[in-house]
Specification:
transferase (chains A, B), homodimer, 7-stranded mixed beta sheet, 2 domains, 15 strands, Pyrophosphate--fructose 6-phosphate 1-phosphotransferase (chains A, B), Rossmann fold, glycolysis (chains A, B), 4-stranded parallel beta sheet, about 35% helix, 6-phosphofructokinase activity (chains A, B), magnesium (chains A, B)
């Protein structure tokens, strides 16, 4: 049997589980007799184009490195935001990519990423099939936003959700210590999908009612309803905790954040947000006049691997491994997915789905996860999200700080 | 032997170690034969004035609650920002306080707090002595700012420092994933004392150079030097991480944060800060023109007990216990302190110091902890701070979220 080489790339915004998936792919490839060299493409598709491919075999024959990789946040191989043009618009870039793959005898291409990365997977797979390139192209999901279509949930979401929920609980404890009316507004990531903001509800327990209010991008934001909701809650108990998505919009579809920040567009045409909580803080100070603080959890919600979900990391690793077994038996042009099995206990099955059914679609919170007034989530959401945040990892630390694995550039 | 009662209060900004100190005080009081009832005064001195005292004995005879208390962030008893007037200005409030103490047969008063709380300890002790009230008043330090005079370091600082350092490391990993010039500015708490901002340097390891630059309130901030420093670092490696104190000031003594926020004053005359990083973000975008993001770690640096320092919690507990043994043998009007012993290995001794030598003084970073250019810390600071962040606690979780102990109000 002639052995072939494989390449793995990471793309889009980092998470603290994307490296667990990478570890799963590497682990399975190392164990396969069909695979010789395992390459990592540095900064996503850019590494293939520039020839910046790193051989990973030796690094990860050391099992300790594989274990460290699982608990390292962000993208070990670096990431990119690279919009592949349509083949009809620019065939040269496709020729360059496949020339590079051929040069390195690469027959398997694994791309771990979000919506935009799945667009890349779809296009490369179509090209490979059209021109009979003999390259298997597989997508593996990751995103803290949990907005990929076709999968029950995305690797990376559970860890971000756990960190958000734990942080909201801690922020609430902090707010409760003073006996004065106060509003604390916590801003959470998610442009169009409110899953992560909704996950703040997982902070609640028998002795914590925070967050009191949750505003999601799926529900039109009304500032008067918001003020009325907040006033009601202050009356009940002095310290009100509000979770708000960065992506909440008013009835005209204008981002609340836009009131304080000039909107900029990234290469994919997404608005760069930030500032919804700050805008609301100013509104509360003016209209209610009580103490108000806004807290942006910011990039820590996707980078805080020191409190990742054990369930999420285990699933992320496993979906990476399974992607390899699918690819090696000839599956191409698919994204790996989680399917939740019916029954009382949480159980998932890993399979795959045609990438054409997934790419460039965006999943948002289903209606039954949002309450009628649009200021909270439902029990159905809690049941959906709770299993994803369970368990903690034992993190390796040195000198009091988590140890991360770093690729030598 | 006639038994007496004791009261404990918590005051000032919360930390994630202040409850460990409370646990230490409670543990020692429960074990003492001289003590009958242990009261917690709700919201600091306010609870004594309003009669809102909670009996703690039963709650903490359950050892599991004592253990949970150690890992609960914020102030279990609630806090206050209450400036006690001078006795000469308002003797009535002193009479009310001591009447309440007498009514409850309280002979021991423990106050856990920062600078302002030590002012309260000093005044109450002076009054008790002057009028022979027979009440022992003891102060126990806590502050994430580490700015209390007389003690090597403050309970609470180590945990905040650990969280800041780990978060800066994670923020850096996140920033490094894109291969574009970028500046990330992390804002850290500390009005006048730069200890916590300096602690960001503890993020550095053999594979992490972040933070590249550290700006402290002790050193006059020059925006041109800042821009020149940042440009130099970008040339060396594309992604620059800057740690900046909320309290940096320019040559005229004006807060950098003031450029973007209207300054408000709290009851103690401290400026309410926030926004130094945002101001600098805007300056970098305008003057350098590269990608720039500001991250405020915000209240999580004082509330994130899920990643507290084991050393800090153990010391915080022990200083609470020792405060009781000092008080029971007749010491009054003192604040408990840590003294670092000489020698290669970190070792502390707990003792106490006259509160009059401590109250209303503020400790800032000594000169030998700051480099000549004022954009970094020295090895001496690392040696000072490193031992304080060592070790992690095994946190109790339920449903994926840390369990906190809550006082029924």
């Amino acid at each position: 049997m002639t052995k072939a080489n494989a390449v793995i790339g990471q793309s889009g915004g980092p998470t603290c589980a994307i490296n667990a998936t990478l570890a799963g792919v590497i682990d399975a490839l190392l164990k396969s007799k069909k695979i010789s060299k395992i390459f990592g493409t540095v900064n996503g598709i850019n590494g293939i184009l520039s020839g910046n491919l790193k051989e990973l075999n030796k690094i990860f024959e050391n099992k300790e490195n594989l274990s460290l990789l699982k608990n390292t946040p962000s993208s070990y191989l670096g990431s990119c935001r690279f919009k592949l043009p349509e083949f009809e618009e620019n065939s040269e870039i496709y020729e360059d990519i496949f020339a590079s793959l051929k040069k390195h005898n690469i027959k398997y291409f694994f791309y771990i990423g979000g919506n935009d990365s799945m667009d890349t997977v779809m296009k490369l797979n179509a090209y490979a099939k059209k021109f009979d390139k003999g390259v298997t192209v597989m997508g593996i999901p990751k995103t803290i936003d949990n907005d990929l279509f076709g999968t029950d949930h995305c690797p990376g979401f559970g860890s971000a959700a756990k960190y958000v929920a734990a942080s909201v609980a801690e922020i609430a404890r902090d707010a409760y210590c003073y006996f004065v009316d106060s509003v604390t507004i916590v801003e959470i990531m998610g442009r169009n999908a409110g899953f992560l903001t909704a996950a703040s509800a997982l902070a609640r327990s028998e002795n914590l009612c925070a967050p009191d209010l949750i505003y999601l991008p799926e529900h039109q934001f009304d500032v008067n309803e918001f003020l009325s909701d907040v006033k009601d809650k202050i009356k009940k108990h002095k310290n009100v905790i509000v979770a708000v998505s960065e992506g909440i919009k008013n009835k005209d579809g204008v981002y609340v954040a836009a009131a304080s920040d000039v909107l900029q567009n990234d290469k994919f045409g997404h608005a760069q947000l930030g500032g919804a909580a700050k805008t609301l803080e100013n509104i509360v100070k003016t209209e209610i006049g009580c103490k108000c603080r806004s807290v942006e959890i910011n990039v820590l919600q996707r980078a805080a691997s020191h409190f990742a979900s054990k369930t999420d990391l285990a699933e992320s690793f496993k979906i990476g491994k399974t992607a390899v077994s699918y690819a090696l038996r000839g599956v191409s042009g698919e994204m790996m997915i989680f399917e939740r099995e019916n029954g009382e206990n949480y159980k998932i099955k890993i399979s795959s789905m045609d990438i054409n059914l997934i790419a460039n679609k965006e999943k948002t919170l289903p209606e039954n996860f949002i309450n009628a007034r649009g200021n909270d989530v439902t029990k159905a959401f809690i049941n959906y999200a709770r299993p994803l945040i369970l368990g903690e990892e034992k993190i390796k630390t040195k000198d009091g700080i988590p140890v991360h694995l770093v690729l030598k550039r």
